[in-house]
Amino acid sequence: MSTDSLFRPFSLKSLNIKNRIVMAPMTRSFSPDGIPTDAVATYYQKRAEGEVGLILSEGTVIDRVSSSNDANIPHFYGEKSLAGWKKVIDGVHAAGGSMAPQIWHMGIMDNHASGWVPSQPFEGPSGLNRPDFSNGNTMTEKDIEDTIIAYGKAAADAKRLGFDSVEIHGAHGYLIDQFFWEGTNLRTDGYGGKTLAERSRFGVEVVKEVRKQVGEDFAVILRLSQWKPSAYTSQLAKTSQEMEAWLNPLADAGVDIFHCSQRRFWEPEFEGSDLNFAGWAKKITGKSTITVGSVGLTGDFLAAFGGESSDPSSLDELLRRMDRGDFDLVGVGRPLLADPSWVKKIREGRTSELKGFSKEALGELIID
User: Fold this and answer.
1) Are 182 and 188 within 8 A, CB to CB?
2) CB neighbours of 334 closer than 8 A, spacing ≥ 6?
3) How, if at all, do strands 133-134 and 128-130 pair?
4) Is the pTM of this model over 0.90?
5) How far apart are CA 247 and CA 37, in angstroms?
6) Which among 28, 150, 36, 32 has a CA at the least distance from the CA of 83?
7) Active-site residue 174, yes or no?
8) pLDDT digits (tens, 9 = 90+) for 204-228
9) Is there a contact between 285 and 317 (Cβ–Cβ < 8 Å)?
10) Which one is catalytic: 151, 174, 191, 232?
11) How far apart, in Å, do the first and last CA atoms of the chain sit?
C-alpha cells in the first residue's frame, strides 16, 4: 500500500508538523540527577533530522518530591533540568522538528532495582500501585491540589521554553491512571467513586489546570491506556458508553489530542466493531487521536524487556485504518529508538534497510 497518508502535514493550534508520524515517549533513564545531558539533546535532534513529525519526550516528572522512582529520570522543574530541556528543544527546532514534553508523576511505585528511593514516600490515591500492594502514602486533598498546580507549572514551562505542545501522561498505571482505576482508587471523598466517570475527577482537574496555564491556542495531548503493566487485560471502560462517560469530560476540560496506548494497535476495543482505542476515542469525542502499539515491528514493547527481539512488519493494516479515518497520527516507539532514520526509510521505500529491535537498544542512546 502507498504510505502517502503518513506524509500529509497536520496542523492543530500550536502544532504544525510535516507528517503524521509521532515518536512515542519511551523512558530512557540517561539524565543523572534529573538533568537532561547533551547526549539526550543529540538523541532527540537526530530523530528530528530523521524527519519525525512530532517527537514526544520520554516521561519527565513534575515538581513533587516523590514523583519519580529513578534518579536518572529527567525532571521538568528546577533551573538545571529546564536548561537541559531548553537545549533539547532548540536542537529539535534547528533540525526542523517539533516536540512536546510528556509531563509525568509516577504515583505509587515499586522501589527501583538500583535501591534509590525519593526522600519522601511515594504518593497516590490510596497508597496502592496495584490491588493489595501498598508502597506509599494516600494523598490528602492538599497533596492533590499541590500536584495539580505542579502539572500546570510544568505545562507553562514547556510553553515558555518553546515546545510546540505538551503531553500529560495519564496511562500505564501511573498517578493519573491510579485515580482512574478501581483497583488503586479506594477513596471515599470526591476523588473516588464507584464509576470511572467519578474517579476521573483528578484527571479532569489536571487537564483544566494545564489548559489554564498554557491558554487556548496551545495544543494539549493526553496519553491514556486501558491496560496496566500489572494487568494487561484491564479495561477501565468496559463498554463504549463507559468510554464516553470517561473521555468526554476530559475533552471538555481541554484535551485536543487523545494518545491512545495499546500493546497492539490492530486489536479491537469492544466486541462488534474492529475499531481500536484511538478509533473509538475519535468517534466518541470528535477530537484528533494518536494510535500506537507495535507499529512497524513484530512483538510488543514489553516483550523486549524480557529479551525478545522484533523484526520489521507490514504497515498495510495501519494504513487501511488510517485511510478509513480512524485516527489522525501514528505513534512509533521501538523502530525510532533503534533507528533515527526510520521515517526517511519508510518515505523513500527503503524497506530492506529497516532494522529490527533487540533489548540491547534499550541500553544506549542510538544516534546513527
Assistant:
1) no
2) 26, 297, 301, 304, 310, 357, 361
3) antiparallel
4) yes
5) 36
6) 36
7) yes
8) 999 999 999 999 999 999 999 999 9
9) no
10) 174
11) 28
